[in-house]
Amino acid sequence: MTDAKTEDLASRVRPALTKLYVLYLRRSANSDLSGPQLTILSRLAENGPSRISRIAELEDIRMPTASNALHQLEQLDLVERIRDTKDRRGVQVQLTEHGRAELDRVNKERDSEMAQLLDMLSPAQLERAEDLVDIITELAEVYGNWKEPKSDS
């Protein structure tokens, strides 16, 4: 249950975050990969080889959706399937060298785009923005691991 203060803050910050996100993605889209495909590559870079079911869980998508996305990434030689070392019947997916290089390239381009955006801030605003990095990072971690409670209805 949220209180009036957090509801007010949410209604003020949400439109700005949405607008910033959409503009940022449009201007930094120097890749043929979709946002979801890039997040899957990022998850594999962070977590190492993973089962498709784990990727679906982390991305909060259905198994067929994850399987389809991974198939497309495999066709582009960005990921490859390998035997699960703990369960030889199982299959995991991992980044290829090409996948890691493509992810690094896109991340560098997006970092550069974000740096140009941050260059528009005054020194005082930049200092305030620096203070927000930890809060935004923590929110992203908490939100990424948060599961909405199931209702009893």
Would you write up a description of this structure?
The protein is mostly helical and 153 residues long. The chain has a domain at 33-120: Arc Repressor Mutant, subunit A (Orthogonal Bundle). Helices cover 67% and strands 8% of the residues. The chain is built from six helices and three strands. The protein has helices spanning 4-27, 35-47, 52-59, 63-75, 97-118, 123-145; strands spanning 50-51, 79-83, 91-95. Strands 1-3-2 form a three-stranded antiparallel beta sheet. The longest helix is centred in the N-terminal third of the chain and has 24 residues, at 4-27. It is globular, with a radius of gyration of 19 Å. Residues 149-153 have low confidence and may be disordered.
CATH homolog superfamily of the domain at 33-120: Winged helix-like DNA-binding domain superfamily/Winged helix DNA-binding domain
Kindly state the mean pLDDT as a whole number? 85
Largest beta sheet: what is the strand line-up?
A: 1-3-2
CATH fold node name of the domain at 33-120: Arc Repressor Mutant, subunit A
List the helices and strands and how they pair.
Blueprint: H1 4-27, H2 35-47, E1 50-51, H3 52-59, H4 63-75, E2 79-83, E3 91-95, H5 97-118, H6 123-145
Antiparallel strand pairs: 1-3, 2-3
Properties at a glance:
153 residues; 6 helices; 3-stranded antiparallel sheet; globular
